């Protein structure tokens, strides 16, 4: 779970960087980064919920 937290922190920090500095501009690179990180966020969220459900069943 700690690893998932690190991944979430990475996702949110890169998303914020893309908006604050516009280091990719408003080009296709900007959109690609947001799309990739959004799907990574979904994968991490689903994995976290599966882990939590498994943990709850064990109780």
Question: How would you characterize this protein structure?
Answer:
By secondary structure, the protein is mostly helical. It has a domain at 29-54. 85% of the residues lie in helices and 0% in strands. The protein contains two helices and no strands. Helix 1 (2-20) runs antiparallel to helix 2 (28-58). The model has no long low-confidence stretch (mean pLDDT 78).
What is the helix content? Answer: over 70%
How would you spell out the order of helices and strands?
Answer: HH
Strand percentage lies at under 5%
Largest sheet: none
Q: What is the residue-averaged pLDDT?
A: 78
The best one-word shape is elongated
In DSSP terms (H or I, runs of 4 or more residues), the helix count works out at: 2
- In angstroms, what separates the terminal alpha carbons? 17 Å
Low confidence ranges: none
Over the alpha carbons, how many angstroms does the gyration radius reach?
15 Å
- Secondary structure class reads mainly alpha
In total, how many beta strands?
Answer: 0
């Amino acid at each position: 779970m700690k690893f998932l937290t690190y991944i979430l922190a990475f996702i949110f920090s890169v998303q914020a960087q893309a908006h604050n500095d516009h280091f990719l501009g408003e080009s296709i690179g900007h959109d690609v980064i947001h799309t990739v990180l959004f799907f990574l966020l979904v994968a991490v969220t689903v994995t976290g919920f599966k882990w939590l459900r498994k943990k709850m069943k064990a109780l």
